[in-house]
Design a protein that fits this description.
The chain contains 3 helices and 17 strands. With 231 residues, it is of the alpha+beta class. The strands form 2 sheets. It has a 15-stranded mixed sheet that branches. Helix 1 runs antiparallel to helix 2. The chain is globular, with a radius of gyration of 24 Å.
């Protein structure tokens, strides 16, 4: 006689095929409600995390399962997002903070909107974005990618960053060429806007900006200053 208890491998299949949350929760309830109290009812192998999950009516095991399930949902949802760039080069200790988790950032790693990039002393990283812009982050720096959208077909483009500390060298890309308001880098001292350019910015007690090509608009509560050869 076929068992009425949902199969663990069926649950794994639903998980890996990105089934709706209510389907997964319904299957999980079935696994838990029909099991003998405190005894394991199944072992499911889920390749997403190369982990084995043990589901039981025991509160301890259920907590472990739900924690692992949350981690997988989190990974799947972020993987579904479209990458906005890639790491061209990384030297020394370079980390990214993503969805409240910190991990090392290496060459060829993909970048996502919302990432916060941090370099330690004697460390550097070069980032290339899908609009062909490049940011080379200097040592002991922190840059937040607050929002990055580049969809040529939908004619949506904007890139907004925050330089928390340190400095960078940047080459602008397609974003900001049509409308300069679509590009901005905030700092505690002023906000930087571009007019198609190649420039450096270093944040200390003051904000230092050097422009090799084009113009940079430096703006704060005191007004706006254009910096560049032809400014």
């Amino acid at each position: 006689m076929k068992s009425s208890i949902p199969n663990a491998y069926e649950f794994s299949r639903l998980l890996l095929t990105h089934s709706p949350a209510h389907v997964l929760l319904s299957t999980l309830r079935g696994l838990i409600s029909q099991a003998p109290t405190g005894k394991p009812i199944c072992i499911g192998y889920v390749p997403v995390k190369q982990s084995v999950f043990l589901v039981s009516c025991s509160k301890y095991f259920l907590a472990v399962f739900c924690f692992s399930l949350f981690s997988i949902f989190n990974s799947i949802s972020y993987a579904a997002e479209k990458p906005i760039g890639v790491v061209l080069a990384a030297s020394g200790e370079v980390n990214v903070v993503r969805t409240k988790k910190t991990f090392a950032l290496k060459r060829s790693e993909r970048l996502f909107s919302g990432d916060r990039i941090i370099t330690a002393l004697n460390s550097r990283v070069q980032l290339k974005f899908v609009d062909r812009s490049i940011i080379a982050l200097k040592q002991d720096s922190e840059l937040s990618i607050d929002e990055f959208v580049f969809d040529a077909q939908a004619q949506q483009e904007r890139s907004f960053y925050t330089l928390v500390r340190g400095g960078f060298r940047a080459v602008s890309g397609k974003i900001g060429k049509t409308d300069p308001a679509d590009y901005a880098i905030k700092t505690p001292i002023a906000t930087l806007g571009i007019r198609g350019t190649f420039y450096d910015a270093v944040l200390g007690d003051q904000l230092y900006v050097g422009v090799m090509n084009g113009k940079v608009a430096v703006e704060n509560s005191q007004g706006e200053l254009l910096v560049g050869v032809d400014a």
